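Teaching assistant here, posting this on the class forum so everyone can see the example we discussed in section. The complex has two components, and the goal was to see what a joint structure prediction looks like when all of them are supplied at once.
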Amino acid sequence: MSTYSSKLVENAVNELAKLPGIGRKTALRLALHLLKQEKAEVELLGTSIIKMRADAIFCKVCHNISDNEICTICNNQKRNRSVICVVEDIRDVMAIENTSQFNGLYHVLGGIISPLDGIGPNDLTINKLADRLKGKEVVEIILALSATIEGDTTNFYLYKRLKEFDILFTTIARGVSVGDELEYTDEITLGRSIINRQPFEGLNNR
Amino acid sequence: MSTYSSKLVENAVNELAKLPGIGRKTALRLALHLLKQEKAEVELLGTSIIKMRADAIFCKVCHNISDNEICTICNNQKRNRSVICVVEDIRDVMAIENTSQFNGLYHVLGGIISPLDGIGPNDLTINKLADRLKGKEVVEIILALSATIEGDTTNFYLYKRLKEFDILFTTIARGVSVGDELEYTDEITLGRSIINRQPFEGLNNR
């Protein structure tokens, strides 16, 4: 219920405050910051988001965000086309790419099954994933979803739905984070990491 | 150092991450949120900030942000033109307006004197304030700056610079905040509030 002396500032604050995690006070701080910037800088910000929304599309194959119909990962002939890593959203693709430990392809579900949020299997790109498996090129599906109940539910659903394809299903390892001290690790994680213990490989294990 | 599959998203994230208090992770979260919004909504956000920066100006009289040469407060003939409240920036005008306790005019300094930040008296709108006092219409200046060393320095400078005008100088009251418990109030504030104690006015004091 602030009193704005400028309708232009009020409009900008109203729009900025619609962003997630940004309240009216922060929105006003951002607006006043923008007022102090060069006109060209503010135009760059405004047009970059308009252009992104207008022109960025989802890859026809893996549903990753892309500037073209087929994304750069699906188009890269050097990548291993026999392994597909299934993730919840685009950020997960970036996180895994940043590890440089995976050279296969991805499939972005666009969410996970969550009845409480009204998200069912049909809201996700699961049919498209099934289509990709028909070519028999794929031999392994890595399930890389969140270690939550919803993630587990989705993993289970995917397995049931896709097991007809005679493909190896794996999930990313869950256990004690690198650098974590045991006494501060939660019981469930610690318990699972004991059950899923692995052969000690000396230096390779580090 | 994230790997973006879309140059358009990367550009938007780069621009969003220039905003104060917004890091690259938050910028990415905002960009992905915008991708899910209606195209028209994103255009509204983008154009509102561009338009604000292009068209909003500072009031010629009080330096408050305004859509016109003279702001709505300075233009309002119902306001008391004999009292000027001096504030640091536009947000302070809004904060005081929201109290509905002040019916005079404002003067926005655009900062406070802070040698450490390289801000001296000439970087502020002090000359413009002196010009406003020459008409002899103004009888009181309310100094409403932050209760910091910089605020005190600026108050003192303004007093020295403007005392020739034979005007009453007042500062906003400093003391225990309404609703605060005494034992949690800092010593300096509590000390000042004892020195500056006021006659008890019964219910009016509440």
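For the discussion questions: Chain A touches chain B through 60 residues (CB under 8 Å). Chain A has a mean pLDDT of 89. Think about how each of these relates to the inputs above.
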